[in-house]
Amino acid sequence: MTVSTSAVPSSAAESVRHGVQVRLVGLRRSFGDVHALDDMSLDISPGELVVLLGPSGCGKTTALRVLAGLEGAGAGQVLVDGKDITSVPTSKRDMGMVFQAYSLFPHMTARENVAFGLRLRGKGSGERKKRAEEYLELVGLNNHSDRYANQMSGGQQQRVALARALAIQPQVLLLDEPLSALDAKVRLQLRDEIRRIQLEVGITTLFVTHDQEEALAIADRVGVMSAGRIEQIDKPDVIYSSPTSPFVAGFIGLTNKVAGEAQGSSAVVLGNTVPLLPGSPTSGPVVALVRPEAIQFARSGSGSGRGQATVVSTSFLGAHGRVHARLADGTVLIAQMSTGETVALQPGDLVDVSVAPSPVLATV
């Protein structure tokens, strides 16, 4: 099932086409001795989709719940469209929410589920039905209006949940791990559909996930969280290629830790000179954090590398592959290579190693 290519319902476009600004300012939230949020701040521009990404317990879901009004903040402010709503109850915050659990009413059809929030807001039966049908069409389920939850797949149920959240025409859309209960193929498809719908409707959105690929694929900006704070927030490509801390470099994607020698704004790594990102040491021994695609293996004797390693294993991943090889000092490197290059290597092969001259972050 694919999402409808029809235009966004005119009522929705009129409601949120400009989006609203969201600001979380100096939020603190503790559970006993655990500081779930530790002076956490975040600005979301009107119509922007920001993803909070991080490991379990980093505070990302707590931040979303404080914004929703489901959790109180020990300190700080929540502002939406310039208004302080820190003390406003959840029911008055005008936010649409989609969670990991679909939370559909089993005794209601898809149409009735989508219309439920509208009924609570006093909308007439004619308007409820019309708008429910519009939003079911938006998520590609206009032919499933009369089905119950047990007659739909997990992906279809989550689409109904999304339609229900949007049908009330909220100022802000909140999504907390909405795809984690789905299988890989459906997850990928629905991820892209959520992003397309969000762009079409133009609604300001906060999306929480622990899935790196998911975050990088759909976000305008990604905020990487650790210990109740945002370590770095930027566009997905910047977060990946220019991490500002070892935590961000290690959490986003795969990273090789390779010994090197810093020399001002660059470092010598495996005999190659590579630029250093801001925040790296400028002299002495360092550990360079090198992405797999910057590691290059070639059969020994080709003269393309300065170091040598022994292939440990290869992995076929479709359009590309990964090769693990061990240096003489025992360090295992991971290289991401084309499928053809990957299948040409076998465990035990001796390879020359080189490092592409792309910027890296280094630590001591």
Spell out the key features of this protein.
OB fold (Dihydrolipoamide Acetyltransferase, E2P), 5-stranded antiparallel sheet, 6-stranded mixed sheet, 10 helices, 364 residues, alpha+beta, 20 strands, 34% strand, disordered N terminus, Rossmann fold
Description:
- This protein is of the alpha+beta class.
- The strands form 4 sheets. It has a 6-stranded mixed sheet, with helices on both faces.
- 27% of the residues lie in helices and 34% in strands.
- A hairpin with a 2-residue loop joins strand 1 (22-31) and strand 2.
- The longest helix is centred in the middle third of the chain and has 18 residues, at 184-201.
- It contains 10 helices and 20 strands.
- Helix 3 runs parallel beside helix 5 (154-167).
Summarize the structure.
The protein has 364 residues and is α+β, with helices and mostly antiparallel strands.
- Name the strands of the widest sheet in spatial order: 6-7-8-3-9-10
Please give the radius of gyration in angstroms.
24 Å
The percentage of residues in β strands lies in 25-35%
β-strand number = 20
Count helical runs. Answer: 10
Taken in chain order, the helices and strands follow as HEEEHEEEHHHEHEHEEHHEEEEEEEEHEE
Largest sheet: 6 strands, mixed
Superfamily (CATH H level) name of the largest domain? P-loop containing nucleotide triphosphate hydrolases
The rough form would be described as globular
CATH class term of the largest domain? Alpha Beta
Give the terminus-to-terminus CA distance.
51 Å
Estimate the helix proportion, in percent: 25-40%
CATH topology assignment of the largest domain: Rossmann fold
Average pLDDT = 89
Low-confidence stretches: 1-6, 12-17
